[in-house]
């Protein structure tokens, strides 16, 4: 607690060899809604996290040219810098309205500090509050299983592109929200306005 309130004192103590005693506890980051001025820092973070391949992902087919779900874009901020990002996108999954989670990325130097978990938990809580019934994603099951994501709820659904079935996961926020959903998942986010001579802005 002392170290959390007085980080300088903690740094001093650490330098003097008292690090383990006064190690900072509690989160030194916060999650907030994404703002328009975050775009540049967020884009750079995603480029570092995923590289150019980020635009070739199957999930991107559900996002490109569209806006993310209202009230469901978040950033993690640490020391004034954006160190994490998470968005959700409206989709229709075999006639069931749902959300697609992603991309989720945390700055390399800030990983394993609970920022990814905090972003996902915050996002799921907000999604529930906004009345959404389910969420799906393409990602590593060993990471997302801790939030309750599993392959079973989306087993009969398919995405507009190739995906390893073990990485296509779903979570019902409301029991039965995905029901026996089957068929193609399509993006339903509001279309971005395209100005003349301007290339279609990639979403991610
Ligand atoms: C995945 C990612 C967002 C996790 O962020 P984070 O802030 O480090 O996450 P947390 O602190 O909540 O959790 C870290 C734990 O998850 C584990 N973890 C991270 N990525 C994992 C993965 N792909 N599969 C399984 N476990 C994973 C870490 O080993 C760590 O374990 P530990 O707590 O035992 O040390 C981050 O590693 C990242 O940005 N990766 C690059 C982009 C990416 O792959 N995004 C996900 C796309 S689906």
Notable characteristics:
single chain, 204 residues, alpha+beta, Aminopeptidase, 8-stranded mixed sheet, 5 helices, globular, disordered N terminus, binds coenzyme A
List the helices and strands and how they pair.
Blueprint: H1 2-5, H2 7-18, E1 30-33, H3 39-50, E2 73-78, E3 81-93, E4 96-106, H4 115-129, E5 134-138, H5 141-144, E6 157-158, E7 168-172, E8 183-187
Parallel strand pairs: 4-5, 6-8
Antiparallel strand pairs: 1-2, 2-3, 3-4, 3-8, 5-7
The chain binds coenzyme A.
Coenzyme A (COA) binds next to α3, β4, α4 and α5.
What does this structure look like?
With 204 residues, this protein is of the alpha+beta class. It has one domain (7-187): Aminopeptidase (3-Layer(aba) Sandwich), CATH 3.40.630.30. It is 23% helix and 25% strand. The chain has five helices and eight strands; from the N terminus they run ααβαβββαβαβββ. Strands 1, 2, 3, 4, 5, 6, 7 and 8 form an eight-stranded mixed sheet that branches. The longest helix has 15 residues, at 115-129. The two termini are 37 Å apart. The site of coenzyme A has 16 residues, from helix 3, strand 4, helix 4 and helix 5. Coenzyme A binds at residues 49-50, 104-106, 111-117, 139-140, 142-143.
């Amino acid at each position: 607690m002392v170290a959390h309130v007085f980080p300088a004192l903690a740094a001093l103590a650490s330098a003097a060899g008292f690090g383990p005693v006064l190690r900072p506890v509690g989160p030194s980051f916060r999650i907030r809604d994404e703002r328009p001025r975050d775009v540049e820092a967020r884009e750079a973070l995603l480029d570092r996290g995923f590289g150019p391949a980020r635009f070739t992902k199957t999930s991107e087919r559900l996002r490109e040219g569209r806006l993310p779900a209202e009230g469901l874009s978040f950033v993690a901020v640490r020391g004034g810098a954006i160190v994490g990002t998470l968005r959700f996108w409206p989709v229709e999954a075999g006639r069931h309205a749902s959300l697609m989670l992603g991309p989720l990325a945390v700055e390399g130097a800030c990983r394993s500090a609970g920022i990814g978990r905090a972003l996902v938990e915050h996002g799921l809580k907000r999604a529930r509050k906004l009345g959404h019934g389910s969420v799906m994603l393409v990602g590593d099951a060993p990471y997302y299983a801790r939030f309750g994501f599993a392959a079973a709820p989306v087993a009969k659904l398919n995405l507009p592109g190739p995906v390893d079935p073990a990485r296509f996961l779903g979570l019902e926020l409301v029991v039965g929200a995905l029901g026996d959903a089957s068929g193609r998942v399509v993006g339903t986010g509001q279309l971005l306005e395209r100005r003349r001579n301007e290339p279609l802005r990639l979403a991610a």
